[in-house]
Amino acid sequence: MAFTLDPLPYPFEALEPYIDAKTMEIHHDKHHGTYVAKLNAALEQAPELQSWSLEDLLKKVSQVPEKVRQAVRNHVGGHYNHQLFWNILSPEGGGEPLGELGKLITRDFGSFDTFKEQFSTGAANLFGSGWEWLVVSPEKKLQLLALPNQDNPLTNGFVPIFGLDVWEHAYYLKYQNKRPDYIAAFWNVVNWKQVEENLKKAL
Ligand code: MN
Q1: How much distance in Å is there from the Cα of 93 to the middle of ligand 1?
Q2: Which helix (H) or strand (E) holds 165?
Q3: CATH assignment of 20-87?
Q4: Range 99-202 classified under CATH 3.55.40.20
Q5: Cα(107) to centroid(ligand 1), Å
Q6: Rounded distance, CA 30 to CA 154, Å?
Q7: Which of 52, 76, 112, 132 keeps 20 to 30 A from 4, CA to CA?
Q8: Gap from CA of 110 to ligand 1 centroid (Å)
């Protein structure tokens, strides 16, 4: 059993002008595609892991045989993180979350604007390559986590429900060194309905 790269749930150009078509195409087909291919290649060297789910591989990465552990860690995160990311974006996105998600954001951050500001600052200040995450903690609270590389909150006992890729490959074609402009644009294409679905599963 090998992992596969699902097509994007919308056309490459769907998130224009906030995220450009060329970036989406290269990011999905080449970057995400390579994570999937390299994850499968690593699992071929450790066939006993082939029955593990993506979540198992993330949660129990410390039990992965050492010869493939770093490769699995990098590429399982690369696969899971991007799969989540494509789904929390939508051309019909933007605005503010309502329902349970809106309530919990207000409960745990004070207001949506405070959450947005803290998330944006965390994403802008993350050094090097990585992701800014909104996670559900073991105590069922919402909190922010900034993680390097393709590390995933599941490895640390948190459940990611929303995240932003701040690797340069996610924005450099359009935004070059202006990461804060990419972060500001991203809010226009957030699919809050999907984030709410992710929250319900996490709770
Ligand atoms: Mn990426």
Answers
A1: 20
A2: strand 159-165
A3: 1.10.287.990
A4: yes
A5: 30
A6: 25
A7: 132
A8: 30
